[in-house]
Amino acid sequence: MRHTSHADYALRVLLYLRVAPGRQGSVADIAEAHAVSRHHLVKVVQGLAGAGIVETARGRGGGVRLARDPSTITVGAVMRAMEKDFAVVECLGAARFCRVAGVCGARSVFSRALDAYFAVLDEASLEDIAANDLGLRGALGLTTAG
């Protein structure tokens, strides 16, 4: 299973905010630090704000900041907020056209695998994945401690 760039960029935004001075930044600064499209990040930030993971403010002194303590934001919650489809096989989705759906055991196996996958992601917080503060700050060009 591979997540969309939308979900990937969401984690990048959150990592940036976790280690940024004041745990805040502009979309332009985050895009530059990760060398990704500013336009795409605007949509990502809107999704994160809609999920209550970040807060945004316009104008002077505005930007994006974490809405909650990083230890309470799980990777699983971020993935659920940013992804629309976790049907790794057709029979897990809403539309089922497979001729053997309901009589083979694949649905059960993939369902359990997906549950295990999210169990791991739900154990990992933003605080956990951003534990290397100095390394992240260096990689993102953030020299001021936050």
Please describe what this structure looks like:
The structure is a single chain. This protein has 146 residues and is mainly α. The protein has a single domain, classed as Winged helix-like DNA-binding domain superfamily/Winged helix DNA-binding domain (Arc Repressor Mutant, subunit A), CATH 1.10.10. Helix content is 51%, strand content 7%. It is built from seven helices and three strands, in the order H-E-H-H-E-E-H-H-H-H. A three-stranded antiparallel sheet has the order 1-3-2. Helix 1 packs across helix 4 and helix 2 crosses helix 3. The longest helix has 18 residues. The chain is elongated. The model has no long low-confidence stretch (mean pLDDT 88).
Task: Please describe the topology of this protein.
Layout: H1 5-19, E1 24-25, H2 27-34, H3 38-50, E2 54-57, E3 63-66, H4 75-82, H5 106-123, H6 126-129, H7 133-140
Antiparallel strand pairs: 1-3, 2-3
